[in-house]
Amino acid sequence: MPTCQNCQSFVTERYVKVFEPEGVTQPRACPHCEDMVRRGKTVRAKKN
User: Fold this and answer.
1) How far apart are CA 36 and CA 43, in angstroms?
2) For residue 47, how many other CB atoms are within 10 A of its CB?
3) Which domain does 38 fall in, by range?
């Protein structure tokens, strides 16, 4: 069962397949991560 590396929330395998590069099984950030932003294939901390 995949979990987010940032907030430890459960994510589906489909989410990982769509939003993570091939070979990554645990996402770096998920929709529950309010402090992280996805930009293309990278993940970064949200600017305040």
Assistant:
1) 7
2) 5
3) 1-48
pTM of the model: 0.70
Counted domains in the chain: 1
Instruction: Kindly tell me the sign of the dihedral angle through the C-alpha atoms of 23, 27, 45, 47.
Output: positive
Tokens of 30: 């998920």
Report the half-sphere exposure of 2 (CA within 13 A, side-chain side): 18
Token pair recorded at residue 42 = 């990278």
Block means of pLDDT (10 residues each) for the chain, 48 residues, are 90 90 87 80 75
Contacts of 37 (CB under 8 A, 6+ apart): 29, 43, 44, 45, 46
Please state, in angstroms and rounded to a whole number, the distance separating the CA atoms of residues 1 and 46.
26
